[in-house]
């Protein structure tokens, strides 16, 4: 309890606009940790702040605070950011900003500003004319106690149609929409229900071919995208001294160039037409009532802006050999879900790629020798703002810096004797994460079938389970499996005595046939399905799909291929135009 009390005394807690305004009356330097409600303040920096408070001994001159961006109107531009931000206020003027838990940079900035204040107080220097960093949105109204919810947010819903999903146009369309200055608020890939189609396309329900259109949209995958108009970045940010090295003038120029299309009066439909991709999408603009969106994405108001990100994590050999369980427990305690994991012995080339940042160090050869000495553990982790959170959690790249500045980081906690580098690795960007995950967990395809006896509600539950366990539903079709069509899937058992019974079950209604993609997809789908007999499944694998939704050995809810050869044969027969990407058989 005493420790908690010291923590509160060290940093004032600012969680509303009134407390923010009061804090800005502080004399001297106030260091403000701006945090998001979902992750809390940056605990790893508190040791540094306490150390500086004791060493500098300037209670009247140096103050620390934590400020929740979600609750303070002034901090609205910092909401939904995945890395910590530190603001530096001198006598109520924000003079500097540092992004990321860069302990040496924060340490240097505090000491510099405190020394300036000391010299000013002693009459040894004149107070500099600071360029105040303005971070209030230019369009925001009178701040006061109003929250951003008091102003109607305008949304645009884009439905990328099934033929575009099948043609793998989704990524291209999303990238162009983002380049146009729009921000993704929510997204989902799924077949629309009849209710959802009639809701979104209500203006065309009287057209003669509308029922055929409904059938098309409900039997295939669509991609739903909810976006809002992004704010243009303000050039007044003074980041020349204190920004991380990853930010450069080139990236600023690129961001400015990317923002240009957003000045097209906010008309996304017009922009898509100019980009010649409007034929793949249907757009509904100027939506202020979230109930309209709730029909397509349930509970949108609570899920909007939540960005679940995947990252690659790696436990290097020494750590994997000695403290795997401790690390995995820590990962789960921090709210990550482990989607995939595998042991892998790195080649020298792979080790050099992952350790490139150390190549000019004297110990580089020793690091590579250690990295190739035994198995590492590769993981795919996912959570809200997962990439930035993982990088913040693991801390600096070398142990000496971690122990001095961030002793609570995983780098310091899991340091191994004689090894100077962080024993945990994380991807540097979302692009790098995607590339590294595909490399260490090459995708594999399998075929999945949801049988006719499964209700629409149960179908949706099964599809949610599929997505939550890391599968991508790459393609899908709803089809009545006639004897001819059924043979494309069940060709291995067509001469069995019970095959006619299988055909009778399939003839009861339409089935949902899917291509599922994931590393180790065939085995993982069979494990997720569970034993063939639902009674046995409920005994041996109660969380499996067959245990939850199967009724007997014929009506056991789902079917899947036994091996990769069978999967690819079935896919080529059921989805003749499908071309697998980077297919791995192992």
Automatic annotation (TrEMBL):
PROSITE patterns: NDPK_LIKE, THIOREDOXIN_1, THIOREDOXIN_2. CDD domains: NDPk_TX, TRX_NDPK. GO terms for cellular component: cytosol; nuclear speck; outer dynein arm; sperm cytoplasmic droplet; sperm midpiece; sperm principal piece. InterPro entries: NDK-like_dom, NDK-like_dom_sf, Thioredoxin-like_sf, Thioredoxin_CS, Thioredoxin_domain, TXND_domain-containing. The keyword Hydrolase applies. Residues 1-119 form the Thioredoxin domain. The keyword Zinc does not apply. The active site is at residue 559. One of its GO terms (molecular function) is microtubule binding. It comes from the Eukaryota. Keywords: Cytoplasm, Developmental protein, Differentiation, Disulfide bond, Hydrolase, Repeat, Spermatogenesis. One of its GO terms (biological process) is cellular response to reactive oxygen species. Belongs to the NDK family. Monomer. This is Thioredoxin domain-containing protein 3.
